[in-house]
Write a structure and sequence with these properties.
With 245 residues, the protein is α/β, with parallel strands linked by helices. The protein has two domains: 1-83 and 163-245, Rossmann fold (3-Layer(aba) Sandwich); 91-161, no CATH class. It has helices spanning 45-53, 76-81, 99-110, 116-129, 146-158, 176-191, 203-209, 227-230, 234-244, and strands at 7-16, 19-29, 34-38, 61-66, 69-70, 84-86, 164-168, 195-199, 212-217, 220-225. A hairpin with a 2-residue loop joins strand 1 (7-16) and strand 2. The longest helix has 16 residues, at 176-191. The radius of gyration is 18 Å and the shape is globular. The termini are far apart. The model has no long low-confidence stretch (mean pLDDT 94). The structure holds adenosine-5'-diphosphate and magnesium ion. Magnesium ion (MG) binds next to helix 1.
């Protein structure tokens, strides 16, 4: 008996006029897996996450199944409610809201708490889970350094209680020490049973945490497999050298 993948993407395509930003992408993700996603700038990685979550836009073609159930026709809030959450490449927090109020906006979408007091507790628990300092819960988003803004954004996604979390370049603009803390957080989330799709330019981080690595170039999947095999793949090396040149 084969276990059903928690996420199955098939033939996913997103066009912008003549540009095929995501071009017939298919892959599956097993429950509990971390799938790393790499590729040169502009290869379609963020567009892939956008098309899967329908935030902020839908795919032009293709299907997305979550535990076997089609979600590609559902509105974005229903997709999130059914267990698929995402974070963004640019850490998006409400600048005038405190850290805890930022996460509260996510908790309130789920109706999980049932009362305001209980919602606040859930928001605080999500901040604790990602290691956000308790002393800074009431700091405004705009005053937080980039690493802490990223933690607030991740806490907001976790407050949706996702089974699958899509993370778009969580290590960008971080110091080596912060990257190590992000790696530890990703490992912790996996330990809690969250399935993770991780887009990352920091290749040592990506290869350290990923069970499999998917590489995109010009909207297509050019390699998918064990990280150690994929980073030696000729097409992958060429795609990256092409970017450098
Ligand atoms: N909203 C949009 N409108 C038009 N073109 C877009 C839009 N979003 C992305 N693109 C284009 O799609 C391609 C893939 O972009 P993106 O998915 O952001 O790449 P990556 O995340 O891999 O760097 C790029 O050529 C980009 O310019
Ligand atoms: Mg991107």
């Amino acid at each position: 008996m084969t276990t059903e993948p928690i996420l199955a993407v098939s033939g996913l395509t997103k066009t912008f006029g003549a540009l095929r930003a995501v071009d017939g992408v298919s892959f599956t993700v097993a429950e509990g897996e971390i799938l790393g996603i790499a590729g040169p700038n502009g290869s379609g990685k963020s567009t892939l996450f956008n098309a899967i979550t329908r935030i902020p836009f839908s795919a032009s073609a293709g299907t997305v199944l979550l535990s076997g159930r089609p979600i590609h026709g559902e509105p974005p809030h229903r997709i999130a409610a059914s267990g698929l959450a995402r974070t963004f490449q640019r850490e998006s927090v409400f600048p005038s809201l405190s850290a805890v109020d930022n996460v509260l906006t996510a908790v309130e979408q789920t109706g999980r708490g049932g009362s305001f007091e209980r919602d606040v507790v859930l928001a605080e628990q999500a901040l604790d889970l990602v290691g956000f300092p308790a002393t800074l819960h009431n700091w405004e988003g705009r005053k937080l350094p980039v690493f802490l803004r990223k933690l607030v954004m991740i806490a907001g996604a976790l407050a949706l209680d996702p089974r699958v979390l899509l993370m778009d370049e969580p290590a960008s603009s971080l110091t080596p020490e912060e990257i190590e803390r992000m790696r530890a957080l990703i490992a912790k989330l996996r330990g809690l049973g969250v399935t993770i799709l991780l887009i990352e330019h920091v290749l040592p981080l990506l290869t350290a945490v990923s069970d499999r690595l998917l590489v995109m170039d010009q909207g297509r999947v050019i390699a998918l497999g064990a990280p150690s095999d994929v980073i030696r793949d000729a097409a992958v090396v060429e795609a990256y050298l092409g970017e450098a040149a």
